[in-house]
Amino acid sequence: MTNSPEHSFLSPSLSQLRRYCTKVFALLLLPLLLQAVSIPAPGAGEDRAIYLVHVEGDGPVAFEPEHAEKFSNRSGSSVSLAKNLVDLHDELLQSSLAEGTYQKLYSFNHIFNGFAVHTTPSQAGRLAAAPGVKLLERDRQAKLMTTYTPAFLGLPGVWAEGGGEKTAGEGVVIGIIDTGINPAHPSFANDPENPFRPDWRPQFDGACEMSSLAGALCNGKIVSARHFSAGAAAVFPLNASRELSPVDEVGHGTHVASVAAGNWGVPVVVGGFKYGTASGMAPRARIAVYKAIYPEGGTTADVISAIDQAAQDGVHILILSIGPDEPPEGIPSLLSAFEISLLFARRAGIFVVQAGGNKGPSESTTISVSPWTVGAAAGTTDRKFQATIKLDDGIILQGVGLTGPSYKDGFPFKPLVAAKDAIAKQRGSQISPAYADECQHPEALEPAVVQGTIVICNFSVGFFNGSSTVTSTLNTAKVLGFAGFILVANPILGDFVAEPLPFTIPGIMIPKVSDVQILLDYYEKTTYRDPERTVTRYGGRASIGEGRIASFDEGAPVVARFSSRGPDVVDRQMNAVDVLKPDILAPGSQIWAAWSPISALEPILRGEDFALLSGTSMAAPHIAGIAALIKQFKPTWDPSEIASAISTTASGYDGNGIPIMSQGSDPQSLYPSTPFDRGAGLVNPSRALNPGLVFPSGFKDYISFLCSSPSVDREMVKSTTNRACGSPESSPADLNLPSITIASLRGLQMVRRRVKNMGDVPETYLSSVRQPRGVRVYLKPSLFTIQPQGTQDIQIELKVTEALEGFSFGEIVLVGSLDHIVRLPMSIFPVAVI
């Protein structure tokens, strides 16, 4: 690599710098109007807060040359200026505030000139008016938790009704069938100041296996821990050198458990950086662990055995963030052993929630198919992590990566080098640009070229076929001393989807080809080559920004691209069933929660106690934890009543008050969501506690539903459920669900629903209908009064007015005189006018 032209570095003397700063402080006397800070009059008893103070004058970065080739050695003058700024910050505080009224936390003396101070509002007001202060703002202290999602869903208000987070979920057992648990994690510790009583729930009868590695796995918070491996051992086989126990080797089960019921207020620290504190939805609920998935994989046999054991133990809630990934051969999914085991778990009084699957945005991809379970779709929250890279011509590109900045040493811009242009000289003829391009092999790159630079690596064929990993890119960067790396989409292969990963060195992924093209155009424009296209000088400069600080946007939730969609189908022939799937939308994108440091399948997370993950696996435990809260407050409610309350009180609108949108194949491309994307809408825990009406259903109702389904053989129903079909329902759409789905509506059809008043006083309800296109809907009665714990039958007439080529969507709304609002989404396929 040829060095860039030298630049004149005019470094001011130490005395000049001190005179400059002193003059600024002496002359700048105008107080500032600070809109971000409300400053009360001085007074006793004020709560302290952190304030960020920007001071007039530049930091050392402003005195560095714009295009220096190397930034590892800072000049003596710059070091002196940084030290002088620290002294001047101290002098400013001492001259403005009374001793003992503040604590300086940091001096910012590299990229800008300022400091952070912990003090009272009245003292902050004095500081704001001090000479030399440009801006003072209160630290907003954004709480980045699962773990942010309790706040997003309004759970602190729900917890307060039962005594706060220290009792939220008390007395409820959540069973988790997954990859096990990390029993040593603080998210599952027994708080000595608020211990779990041994006699808390005598009807639960779990068992605790021992582990030679972890010892006793149960501690009062974890009340049962078992593993099921016979199927996996027979199929894979399992690693014989590993101890088989409920200990989580993967991390997935630990993550799910902590989202549902992890302890409140656990610090989230990854790579030495604190992202906030974590809390489960029901932080006081107990956890029963049923490990059925291993690093090598899992079998339905082990899962069903775990379901069976959980039902025997007496769990109240069961989470399945796992499950069969495709329909069974030869029989409808509804009659598979897996689904029937869940039917009987429901019969045992267990509320079952399933991850809906991660095969979106294609339709009919949901793996939660039965009406006796709740299938969770995944949505975004209003918090997101986004990294940036700035080119020295001022262009800023957005990307992904939980990364620290590349300017830690005070120098913002580093030389920019493409891996394909830095092939190792000694093996140049043996290494192809494609081999070097993905930054998987340190020996493929020339150390002298890439050391101290930001290297452009290509997300190419190896990443798509699984032979290349981000972990290997990180390893190459560490071995060769990159200042940072940029993992870019291959313009030939197109965009890729990236989730934030923790990078131990500065790094950013740019998944959009359009952004990559801007970067590559800049690179080629600033890179000098000889006639043979060999680089003679790298003139480009870039700076990777801080990617670990979240930003917030009220336009959430949005249905995540990966979240599986309806309509519900029951076999490989794609026969649709009259059941709405998914059922409900919950946070499932970029969720912080506990992790297992073993991390057998994710080397990049190895050694970490927390992970930021996305998937419907993360959405399901949100619903499970909320169901546990409802069960705590309403212990007599059965699973269908809890499911109904969650569904009919859900919201179809985002934080800006507009209908929820969905991501398409391109996450940036949004379209209006339908019930097949979001189910009933975003879960609303506070409203679910007081739904007004519910739509109850029981085991016999599910048998009648099976017997009436045209794609289900009645004799097979008997053989799988041991229940003979009597007189079937007129239609599977008559199952008393809190939604109406008809996969083939011809002419006129009557549908029945029965509501139950869960309140303590009579209430009068008036109905209204948002009509689906091509269908006219009438309700009888449209006005009714219902007594406490009473029921009311409703006849719903649906008439085709126009045949369509697909589903149309509407909604029935029942508005109560006591302000209850009950919503039933409708998904109707009008196929013929008769």
- CATH architecture group name of the largest domain: 3-Layer(aba) Sandwich
Structural class: alpha/beta
Helix content: 10-25%
Low-confidence stretches: 1-43, 66-74, 139-147
Quaternary organisation: single chain
Counted beta strands:
42
Reported for the largest beta sheet, the result is:
7 strands, parallel
Strand order of the largest sheet: 8-11-5-14-15-16-29
What would you call the shape? globular
CATH topology of the largest domain, what is it called? Rossmann fold
Whole-number total of structural domains = 5
User: Total number of helical segments?
Assistant: 20
Radius of gyration: 30 Å
Average pLDDT number: 85
Classify the beta-strand content into a percent band. 25-35%
CATH class of the largest domain: Alpha Beta
Distance between the termini: 78 Å
Q: Superfamily at the CATH H level of the largest domain?
A: Peptidase S8/S53 domain
GO cellular component, one term: extracellular region
Family: Belongs to the peptidase S8 family.
Signal peptide: 1-36
Active site: 178, 252, 617
